[in-house]
Amino acid sequence: MIPASSADVGSTSVWLSPPVVAALVAAIVALLTALITAFVTVGVAERKLRRDFRLEFAAEGVAHQLMMDPEWSLRSFAVIKHHLGGFDDDDLRRILVRAGAIRFSSPSGKELWGLLERNHHLLGATTISEEPGHRSGKTQG
Q1: Residue 102: which H helix or E strand, with range?
Q2: Alpha-carbon gap, residue 131 to 133, rounded angstroms
Q3: How crowded is residue 92: how many other Cβ atoms within 10 Å of its Cβ?
Q4: What is the pLDDT of residues 1-57, one digit of tens each?
Q5: What is the mean pLDDT of residues 60-72?
Q6: Which of 31, 109, 131, 136 is the most buried (most CB within 10 A)?
Q7: Given this model, what pLDDT does residue 26 score?
Q8: Can you say whether the dihedral through the CA atoms of 61, 66, 113, 129 is positive or negative?
């Protein structure tokens, strides 16, 4: 049998030696730094995501309101793009679909968009029969 000494692995003096204490402090500091960095990164990413979604929802709202004008049941893509600048064509089309719009073509080949709720009678048609006109006689463009 080996006599117990003060240098046993299980004794408190080995666990409280300067190298072990320094290693424990370094590990705790590294863990805290990693946690703080992770929380800050998640917070920044969340703010960016909220800002991006607000932009998307705002664009959908503007598109919906633009197509709710009582004098126009259909709007040309060019006019919509003019009023909702800053989006490439395909992104703008996605916004229009999320806003409840459907796409048509005019006899002259213009891309037209209108809300499904206002153009339900045109479902099934890819090209409308006549160029859309303004009720007061103005042209849309």
Answers
A1: strand 101-105
A2: 6
A3: 19
A4: 455 554 455 556 666 788 888 899 999 999 999 999 999 999 898 888 877 777 677
A5: 88
A6: 131
A7: 94
A8: positive
Separation of alpha carbons 73 and 126, rounded Å: 16
- The residues, ordered by sequence, that sit 6+ positions from 72 with a Cβ below 8 Å of its Cβ are 114, 132, 134, 140
Residue 27 to residues 30, 31, 36, Cα–Cα distance (Å): 5, 6, 14
For 2, 27, 97, 109, the CA distances from 23, given in Å and listed in that order, are 30, 6, 58, 73
Which residue matches tokens 């709007």? 75
Domains of the chain: 14-122 (1.10.10)
Q: Which amino acid is at 120?
A: H
The CA-CA-CA angle for residues 27, 28, 34, to 5°, reads 90
Q: State the pLDDT at residue 123.
A: 83
